[in-house]
Design a protein that fits this description.
alpha+beta; GROEL, domain 1; GROEL, domain 2; 3 domains; five-stranded mixed β-sheet; 15 helices; elongated
């Protein structure tokens, strides 16, 4: 995991463990910590704890998964040395708790809140996106994608509902051809014979079977003695279907979107009534669509007086590359948007999607918390210096544990430098000297390999991401350190009644 950290971190190729030699094994190319850790198979219980904290980090803030895992690993490395020197784990943990409090306090003090100034806050969000994307595949197009992410998140108006932001992947072209589309794009087509453009429609979103134009009673038999009886059964099925369509038409929708298949007969009935039909929309798409349109997902149609229909300004069928898609413009609250990713291959598109997801999650966290800190190892160095000062005021073995915590924090900028091919020892020492001498904006410029002003470079990180990584890594390391033995339990005995 260490080698994936930072702007110049390396990628990993993940290969599936398929047993079939003839089947082509699926591969994933990524440097996303959450993807790597969730994909690898481990038996070690301690390693599973680290994988769990990376999952929690991804769920909470969407980024910093590699950071939290590496920091927990460095803390455990320092703890191993201390235990070998006859320092009890309880003393180590007590020192770590005090050190963590100091580190959290430093993060709060050095953070900046520009929420009241719209221009400054937008600039902060863009810098956050640029910093997040600098360690991803989108490094060379990060300016463009940072703008896309900021525009998409600002449309949410602080709600943080990621259902309103959709990412779709279309192979072809280059990453630079990607764009942000106003409204919601559904990767389906409008049924043949329906209007391709509809303005100010009333939209019904449903999840109901409309393929009953044949008998589907499993395990049953119907004996008939003539073809007339078969015709009677078919007529009964048609009458049943028509009654259901009449219930749907009682709501007076202009557009009908169904999660399931729609067979020819019900589709014909809907088209005769002038309703535009969209069928077999994927469930995730239907859930997002209902949220975007402000509608309910119906499965029964007995209350036509209830206001459950969605609305938008316009529905149209458009082309993206060579594929037809449906675009919903002017949706509910006008917050919905779609980022269309273009690229030369599926692996590139998958990694670009993961990168944008991380950036968007960081921006959403920042739009709620409003606070940012400087990157480039600045926050880690300032935390480690504060923890070192704490160690000077303590006595006994606990002070040694606090010093170990400070060394673990300094390992993060060290690893980032090593991954960039620079002299890590020299850069980190220079950074420490400058921060100690009062240059509080100093950080490591990973593109030039020197200590530079992070404010001028615009290298910032989200306070929420860093705090979560610090707390999670410390708690996970404490949990593992508290264990003194691994016991394999016997399987639970089943009792016959």
């Amino acid at each position: 995991m260490k080698t994936t950290l930072g702007p110049k971190g390396m990628d990993k190729i993940l290969v599936s463990m398929g047993d079939n030699e003839h089947r082509q094994k699926a591969i994933t190319v990524t440097n996303d910590g959450a993807t790597i850790l969730s994909s690898i198979h481990v038996d070690n219980p301690a390693a599973r704890v680290l994988i769990d904290i990376s999952k929690v980090q991804d769920q909470e803030v969407g980024d910093g998964t590699t950071t939290v895992t590496v920091l927990a690993g460095e803390l455990l490395r320092e703890a191993e040395k201390l235990v070998q020197n006859k320092i009890h784990p309880q003393i180590i943990m007590k020192g770590w708790r005090e050190a963590r409090k100091v580190a959290q306090k430093v993060l709060e003090e050095i953070s900046v809140d520009n929420f009241q100034d719209k221009e400054a806050f937008r600039r902060d969000l863009k810098n956050l996106a640029l910093t997040t994307l600098s360690s991803k595949l989108l490094l060379h197009d990060r300016e463009r994608f940072a703008e896309l992410c900021v525009d998409a998140v600002l449309r949410l108006q602080g709600s943080g509902n990621l259902d309103y932001i959709k990412l779709i992947k279309k192979p072809g072209g280059t990453l630079g051809d990607s764009f942000l589309a106003d409204g919601f794009i559904l990767e389906k087509t409008i049924a043949t014979g329906c209007k391709k453009v509809t303005t100010n429609p009333k939209i019904m979103v449903a999840n109901t079977p409309l393929d009953h134009d044949k008998i589907k009673i499993m395990g049953s038999k119907v004996k008939v003695d003539s073809m007339d009886k078969v015709g009677q059964i078919e007529d009964a099925e048609k009458r049943k279907m028509k009654a259901k369509i009449d219930k749907i038409l009682a709501y007076k929708p202009d557009v009908f979107i169904n999660r399931q298949l729609i067979y020819n007969y019900p589709e014909q009935l809907l088209q005769q009534a002038g309703v535009t039909v969209i069928e077999h929309a994927d469930f995730d798409g239907v859930e997002r669509l209902s949220a975007v349109l402000g509608s309910e997902i119906l499965s029964t149609f007995d209350k036509p007086d209830t206001k459950v229909l969605g609305s938008c300004d316009k529905i149209e069928e458009i082309l993206i590359g060579e594929d037809k898609v449906i675009k919903f413009t002017g949706c509910h609250k006008n917050e919905a948007c779609t980022i269309v990713l273009r690229g030369s291959g599926q692996h590139i598109l998958d990694e670009a999607e993961r990168s944008l997801h991380d950036a968007i999650c960081v921006l959403v966290a920042a739009s709620k918390n409003h606070r940012c800190i400087l990157g480039g190892g600045n926050s880690e160095m300032r935390m480690s210096l504060a923890v070192d000062e704490l160690a000077k005021t303590m006595q006994g073995k606990q002070a040694i544990a606090v010093e170990a915590f400070a060394r673990a924090l300094r390992q993060l900028p060290t690893i980032i430098c090593e991954n960039g091919g620079y002299d890590a020892a020299e850069l980190v020492v220079n950074l420490r000297a400058q921060v100690t001498n009062g240059n509080l904006n100093a950080g490591i410029n990973m593109f030039d390999g020197k200590v530079d002003d992070m404010t001028k470079l615009g290298v910032t990180e989200c306070l929420r991401v860093k705090e979560q990584a610090l707390v999670s890594a410390t708690e996970a390391a404490e949990m593992i350190l508290r264990v003194d033995d691994i016991v394999r339990c016997a399987p639970r005995q089943r009792q016959q009644q």
